[in-house]
Amino acid sequence: MKIGLLGTGNLAVMLGKAWAGAGHSVVVTGRNPAHARTAAQQIGSAAAPIDPSEFADAVDVVVVAIPWDGLDHALNLVGGPSGALSGKAVIDCTNPVDFTTGRLIPATGSAAEYVASLAVGAGVVKALHLFAGASWPFTGSPATAPVVAVCGDDPGALHHAEALIADLGARPVTVGGIDAARQAEEAAGFVMRVVAAGANPRLAIPHVDPVPAAAVRSPG
Ligand SMILES: NC(=O)c1ccc[n+]([C@@H]2O[C@H](COP(=O)([O-])OP(=O)(O)OC[C@H]3O[C@@H](n4cnc5c(N)ncnc54)[C@H](OP(=O)(O)O)[C@@H]3O)[C@@H](O)[C@H]2O)c1
């Protein structure tokens, strides 16, 4: 798969390295060409920097690795509002969270829905915001693989996202449509609050045995 990293920082480099290691080719872009060159060098020989104007045509899947307050600028750089990303799968990794309080910044909706509004015609999926980039690739036993919750409506985009998440060594689990993204983003804020309070977030949720999907769907 040709993966386009929109963003040249920590998460882009970590994901890029992991996907390059799984055999994907990667292009990297952002507002600063020097940062895109450095990020591509850090990822390795499977990666190349690319000008934002050439980005959309060069990729199958876009991964948004940009802070909340840079989304508008970054999506405009690659022509999202003019439809340049139409038909592409876009994975939004943004944590639109006030890191000092854990509060979600958008009053309504989600970063993923905001990305969808800026990536006209694209299939937008929320995923990979909860885990640090340094988590990837996961190389432990599949039985203990991290579960990456995915939200989205576009079947093709979900398929691409699930395949790329599996290539990180994680287990993708689609938990809802894009209207579930706010809850997924709130989960990151909750984790930050628990950490800020000095506790381990793994111990802040109950152990619940998985219920068979048929039982969840049953009306009775
Ligand atoms: N780091 C992680 O482990 C991790 C894990 C999960 C989710 N996330 C989320 O992923 C996103 C990126 O995190 P990060 O740690 O990679 O951040 P980072 O290292 O600070 O990199 C941020 C990237 O966004 C660009 N950017 C910042 N403001 C911009 C603006 N106004 N317009 C255009 N581009 C802008 C930066 O460009 P410049 O280089 O030019 O500043 C850089 O390419 C955040 O939403 C974060 O919450 C991060």
From TrEMBL:
Residues 2-96 form the Pyrroline-5-carboxylate reductase catalytic N-terminal domain. Keywords: Oxidoreductase. Gene3D superfamilies: NAD(P)-binding Rossmann-like Domain. Pfam families: F420_oxidored. This is Dinucleotide-binding enzyme. The lineage of its organism: Bacteria, Bacillati, Actinomycetota, Actinomycetes, Mycobacteriales.
